[in-house]
Amino acid sequence: MAKFNLLEEPWIPVREGGRVREVSLRDALVRAPAIERIDTPSPLEEAALHRLLLAVLYRALPRLGDFWDALDLVERGELDSKALEGYLSRFYDRFYLFHEEAPFLQIPDLPTKDPLPWAKLLPEMASGNNPTLFDHTTEENVPMTSYAQAARALLVHQAYAPGGLLKRLGVTSAEDAPLARPAAFLVVGENLFQTLVLNLVPQKDPGVPVWERSPLRTQDVAGHATKWPLQGAALVYAWPSRGVCLLDEGTGVREMAYGPGVKPLEVGFHDPMVAHRLDAKGQVSPLRLSVEKSFWRDFSAMLPAAGESFPATLAHALRLAEELGLRRELRVLGQVSDQAKVLDVRREVYPLPQGFLSPVAEALLQKGLELAEEVGKELSGVARRVAQGLLGDKDPEELRRFQDSLPLLRLYWAELDGRFPQFLEKLAGPGAMDFWREEVRRAALRAWEETRAFLGTEGRHLKALAEGERAMGSVLAPRQEKEGKTP
């Protein structure tokens, strides 16, 4: 019954030598210095695969006690192959995708009555009442998938499954998986080895991963009989959020048995890849991605200069990279969900230039974010003036709907989405704020020009545009005059 061992079979997509190919979990770790990066079109796969590799390293390598241990590891340039091979050999049998007693991240004896299509494992695929994001299959014609894709999909689901109705094995509703709502922050280095070590934040107790524990059975998850503290990166990074048993059809997977997983007990553990902040009620909550805006607009929510804190992976990676002069970038990965429905899947990439940690750079970044939001509010006022000029004093709700239909704000923010990474690159050098002021002004002007074309040239439109032009005069005025001085 043992089949498709993840330590031996190719299933992790990586870029190496200028091309993308699939490698085994063992090869991804042993050959990490030669591999450029994990390369997958799915942001959720990217996060889930890195978390699995990190979970293994937390247990396989000698424990990193502090920053200096991590620094030594980066300078060594490779992982401890003897420790790694010894660990993987010890738990070799726990990494079979199909196994009679202990299939990887699954429960072997789940009831196979009323199986579900494997597509339920991925939010990008259509299944049940999940909105179709990028896929047009139906549950009646779900194609068979390869073992490699099934393994990746299983990993994604265990990390990202949103809570909601379940109604299986005595459990009415399931809990969120660890990354169902939060954004995940991954710092990418010059090769996979650097990426892994940059994100391997020293832990006092990394926890015991699921493959080192006794295999779960149906009786363990029925009625949420098993509850584990949600604590320790090695455990949380590969958490058994749902009971799954992939059904092998000989050459691939089409269906699976499905049920509840281990119920998480909140114990105040902060996932190293997640940023947290105090909300309006004074409670600590994770930062999430928004369907309405790019994440960079929320950068201030984790700036130390503003009293917040970076996620542990980012703080750790920045310190290591600054010490050694490493090139790196930040990837913000995750999904946007509404209760149990996934609305969007997102990957945002930002440069992390040298000097990013300096007080001057942080202050400029905060000022730049405030400027963009200030102009955005002013443009909202312009849109309101245009709506009033066209519709007069009609019903406020009708005015609001027309105001929201104007492309002014959408185009403004879309322009800045493409310019913000350049602002980050310039933060540590001279003229960063002057560059950003000009980009904000140009974005506002371009958005206004497109809005003029959108409205048309009838008399009532020209009247509304005249109102907008007067309001735009203030928006486009030199920003230094409003700020008082140039930093």
What does this structure look like?
The chain is α+β, with helices and mostly antiparallel strands and 487 residues long. It folds into 2 domains: 263 residues, no CATH class; 125 residues, Topoisomerase I, Chain A, domain 4 (Orthogonal Bundle), CATH 1.10.132.100. 40% of the residues lie in helices and 17% in strands. It contains 15 helices and 17 strands. Strands 3-2-4 form a 3-stranded antiparallel β-sheet. Strands 6-12-11 form a 3-stranded antiparallel β-sheet, covered by helices on one side. It has a 3-stranded antiparallel β-sheet with strand order 9-16-17, with helices on both faces. Helix 10 packs antiparallel against helix 14. It starts with a strand and ends with a helix. The relative contact order is 0.11.
Question: Structural class per helix/strand content?
Answer: alpha+beta
Q: Roughly how many Å apart are the termini?
A: 67 Å
Rg for CA atoms = 25 Å
Number of strands: 17
Strand content: 15-25%
- Low-confidence regions: none
Kindly state the percentage of residues in helix: 25-40%
- What global shape is seen? globular
Q: Identify the strand order in the major beta sheet.
A: 3-2-4
Key words describing this protein structure:
487 residues, alpha+beta, 2 domains, three-stranded antiparallel sheet, globular
Could you give a short description of this structure?
The protein has 487 residues and is α+β, with helices and mostly antiparallel strands.
